[in-house]
Specification:
The complex is a heterodimer.
Chain A (H helix, E strand, L loop, with lengths): L2 H13 L6 H12 L4 H11 L3 H8 L13 E6 L2 H5 L2 H12 L12 E6 L11 E3 L2 E3 L4 H14 L1
Parallel strand pairs in A: 1-2
Antiparallel strand pairs in A: 1-3, 3-4
Helix pairs in contact in A: 1-2, 1-3, 2-3, 3-4, 6-7
Chain B lengths: L20 H9 L3 H11 L11 H10 L6 E6 L8 H8 L1 H15 L3 E6 L7 H17 L5 E6 L9 H8 L23 E5 H13 L1 H5 L9 E8 L5 E6 L4 H8 L4 E6 L5 E4 L18 E6 L4 H15 L5 H19 L6 H15 L3 H5 L1 H10 L1 H5 L1
Parallel strand pairs in B: 1-2, 1-4, 2-3, 5-9
Antiparallel strand pairs in B: 5-6, 7-8, 7-9
Helix pairs in contact in B: 1-5, 2-3, 5-6, 5-8, 11-12, 12-13, 13-15
Classes of the chains: A alpha+beta, B alpha/beta.
């Protein structure tokens, strides 16, 4: 059984086969694969007795349910006003330079995707970024690079 | 005569001393649900997420619905720019949130509760799951048939709108529903649902401990009690503060400003921008400028064009796209101020844009589209020069 099938079965055990299980199921797949491909969405549709269009319609609505491939670590830098005022542009610039990609792109080794997002809820401690689910507030250009390096040495 | 208070710190939300959580819940459960509701109404507590609907009345409406299945939902989809208090509450005192949900469940007759936590706060899941397990078990021991579960969002601001949140929980796109019917009649899965903000639930819990009188004593006639504020921007003391309601913006700025405050955005991107000249006569509360707690300070080094531009980009991205006034309106407002700035359009074009914003206030389907006019009109009105030049 593929990983995705296992996730689907596990989610059904916990949340049932009603449509309310859809978000937890898509979230569980993204947690492991960092994105949803067509095959995943078709498998989910079959499991919950929905049309593939309904599943895609839901998935494509949500920023965190990516329908295009992303790296192992998704960096999301907050771009909303308080972080903007606290210098998020500088953070984005050093990350782009360090990873040699632009916002929206993924490194060639598929390790990192660099994205910007709306308010992450750390306005008193900006600039802030998420790396997958982990939060890094009060960034400086130096600390941002160090954090990325710590993920590189983790692989 | 303007009724207002001096700025005063309060310690209710994060306070953990002097009581046992389960004793408070048990004591509430020993009382008549109607009495609990009249306490809640009497306290004057209004929803702390921003909309300000009277909490006791909401509970009463749900209690009056004759249905076997009802739900209690905690709205933890805190996405309003400048707001971060719910994260802190869930991190520091989650049990008080659960306690508020349990008391609500008892009064309206619900067996299931959900916390809808925004995806940006996923890091809280392990801790919350663990604490929920213990809490649910303890509820069983004291004989209340109510279980709280956790649901996650996936990065959509609009899901903080209550009916969009239900849609999301039901596995659909987070598109707001038409109202009425309101959630107390048809909420999650079409059943009567009380949906309260994180902070509201903690106040509800604390009111059942300290009594409505102690709560009502604070604040003003229209804005009872205290509120947790999220303070950011140009301030030497950014952070989370619980303050009595009813102070003026002037008092607030004297405490939290950097000496050069030119504007305060009250209520997040969807709130209003208060210019310096209005600080003394604007009350922070329902009689003046209401807020879900977001207070962003701007000093004179900031361009209000950049501030408004950032807000409009935010709304353009977060509009669900379902209704035309909001989907197209947000885009056009953004394009509009850009073209005036560039000189492609004359300054008089701003008048057309204000008309558009006001149309959105009337015609948009939900609070998102309706509230874009708040920052837009207040910033254009007070900082026109900065938008044009």
């Amino acid at each position: 059984m593929t990983d995705v099938k296992k996730i689907i079965n596990r989610t059904i055990r916990e949340y049932g086969k009603e449509r309310q299980a859809l978000m937890p199921m898509l979230q569980a797949i993204v947690q492991v694969k960092n994105h949803l491909d067509d095959g995943d969405m078709i498998a989910v549709a079959e499991a919950l007795n929905l049309s593939a269009a309904e599943v895609f319609g839901t998935a494509s609505f949500y920023t965190f349910l990516d329908t295009e491939p992303r790296g192992k670590y998704i960096i999301r830098v907050c771009k909303t006003i308080s972080c903007h005022m606290a210098g998020k542009d500088e953070i984005i610039k050093v990350l782009e330079k360090h990873l040699r990609i632009k916002v929206g792109q993924t490194t060639r080794d598929n390790m990192f995707s660099l994205l910007t997002v709306n308010c992450l809820g750390w306005c008193h401690k900006g600039p802030v970024m998420l790396v997958n689910d982990d939060v890094y507030p009060e960034l400086t250009p130096k600390s941002a690079i160090e954090i990325i390096e710590s993920y590189i040495s983790r692989k | 005569m303007m009724e207002c208070n001096k700025l005063k710190r309060v310690d209710i939300i994060f306070c953990r001393k002097g009581f046992d959580l389960f004793e408070v819940v048990e004591k509430a459960l020993s009382r008549d649900p109607d009495d609990l509701i009249s306490d809640m109404i009497d306290s004057g507590l209004k929803g702390r997420g921003g909309a300000g609907f009277p909490t006791g009345l909401k509970w009463k409406l749900a209690r009056n619905e004759e249905q076997d299945e009802k739900y209690v939902v905690c709205n933890a989809d805190e996405g309003e720019p400048g707001t971060f208090k719910d994260r802190e509450i869930l991190d520091q005192v989650p049990e008080k949130v659960f306690g508020g949900m349990a008391i609500c469940a008892y009064t309206i007759g619900a067996k299931k509760g959900y916390i809808y936590l925004r995806g940006e706060y996923n890091f809280l899941i392990p801790k919350l799951t663990e604490k929920l397990e213990i809490f649910n078990r303890s509820l069983k021991q004291i004989g209340l048939d109510f279980t709280i579960r956790l649901r996650s969002g996936s990065g959509a601001y609009i899901c903080g709108e209550e009916s969009a949140l239900f849609e999301s929980m039901e596995g659909k796109r987070g598109e707001p529903r038409n109202k009425p019917p309101y959630p107390t009649v048809q909420g999650y899965l079409g059943k009567p649902t009380v949906i309260n903000n994180v902070e509201t639930l903690v106040y509800a819990f604390m009111i059942s401990r300290i009594g409505p009188e102690a709560f009502k004593e604070m604040g003003t006639k229209d804005s009872r009690g205290s509120k947790v504020f999220s303070i950011s921007g140009d301030t030497p003391r950014p952070g989370i503060y619980e303050l009595e309601l009813g102070m003026t913006v002037e008092d607030f700025v004297n405490e939290f400003g950097d000496g050069d405050t030119k504007a305060v955005q009250v209520g997040g991107a969807s709130g209003g921008c208060i210019p310096r000249k209005d600080f003394p006569n604007t009350i922070i509360g329902y009689e003046g400028i209401p807020t879900g707690g977001s207070m962003m300070l701007f000093n004179s080094s900031r361009s209000m064009y950049n501030v408004l531009h950032n807000y409009l980009e935010f709304f353009t991205e977060e509009s669900c796209g379902q209704c035309t006034p909001c989907r197209v309106g947000c885009q056009q407002l953004l394009k509009g101020i850009e073209s005036v700035k560039k000189g492609d359009r004359p300054p008089s074009y701003l008048r057309e844009l204000v008309k558009l914003a006001k149309t959105m206030k009337i015609a948009a389907k939900c609070g998102l589209g309706q509230s874009v006019a708040n920052p837009f009109v207040s910033i254009i009105k007070n900082y026109k020069e900065e938008i044009i030049h």
